[in-house]
Amino acid sequence: MKLSVIIANYNYERFVGEAIDSALAIRGAEIEVIVVDDGSTDQSWQVITSYGDRVIAIRQANAGQRVASNVGYARATGDWILFLDADDLVDPSIAEEVMRVATPDTCKVQFQMERVGGEGQQTGSRFPIYDPPPTPEKIKVWAIRLNAYPTPPGSGNVYARAYLDALFPLDNSCGETPDSALVTAAPFFGDVITVDKPLVHYRVHGANDSNLFAREGLFAREVARGHAKFLFAQRIAKTVGTEIPDSSFRKNLHVLQHRIPSVTLTPALHPLPWDNKYQLFKDIIRSTLVFDAMAVKRRIILLVWGVLTLISPRPIAEKLIRKRFRA
């Protein structure tokens, strides 16, 4: 096995060295580490080049994570690919786990991620919650019927090159974050294998893209991303003879958790003109009934949260949203 670890970095001098160290420490495979610096203005490039010929270092003018990932992938020679975020850390055993479970039909092996603090301190929090770990067959059914399945973001996935060759270079039809396209398309190209172990450390440090209270309109941004992923999934699925019904988007309980705050907090910025609180009431009830990709207990909690958020005055609704998104 040869594993290419591609790290796209932008102004993460504080973290990128640790990400590189964790990639170089992976055992059980030939490791190729490719670091693409996306026009950083801090000391990132000095950190990256300090590794000498232990890494393939590429520097480009700032063009975004998608373009940086395209550049890194074009240089990769591994038969398995890991896109490691520059602020995350990977466990040394991840290649061994891939080899343990992968088959010729596998296009993606996905893991749990463990949240750690800015200095790497343990938090005891893991995600996604696989309850139980889904089969590849279940994942494909959910991707078609619910437009979603339990999956970690970028660093929590290792991809077969045979699958990625069908997608790269990535265009912007699924947004500027590569994992949006890669996790969305995977069930239509092969088996997605789930390993119920936290083999990646997801660093939470306040500047994460997932901090949805950093500025106004980020919930609307996530809804737009979710809808773009849905349209991308429909298009990609058709290329392999699979139809995704339009109704599956409204059943997507993950996107619904962003639609509710978007309509509640910034209705003028909400990207779906047909959406409103009445539609959200119907969708939250229907989704919690049919979204069997999530455990019943969690669905009930989200149903209560969604209904309370929709009927509460703005100050209370905002508190409920902040509690849900840990802000």
UniProtKB/TrEMBL annotation:
<dbReference type="InterPro" id="IPR001173">
    <property type="entry name" value="Glyco_trans_2-like"/>
</dbReference>
<dbReference type="GO" id="GO:0016758">
    <property type="term" value="F:hexosyltransferase activity"/>
</dbReference>
<dbReference type="InterPro" id="IPR029044">
    <property type="entry name" value="Nucleotide-diphossugar_trans"/>
</dbReference>
<protein>
    <submittedName>
        <fullName>Glycosyl transferase family 2</fullName>
    </submittedName>
</protein>
<dbReference type="Pfam" id="PF00535">
    <property type="entry name" value="Glycos_transf_2"/>
</dbReference>
<feature type="domain" description="Glycosyltransferase 2-like">
    <location>
        <begin position="4"/>
        <end position="106"/>
    </location>
</feature>
<keyword id="KW-0808">Transferase</keyword>
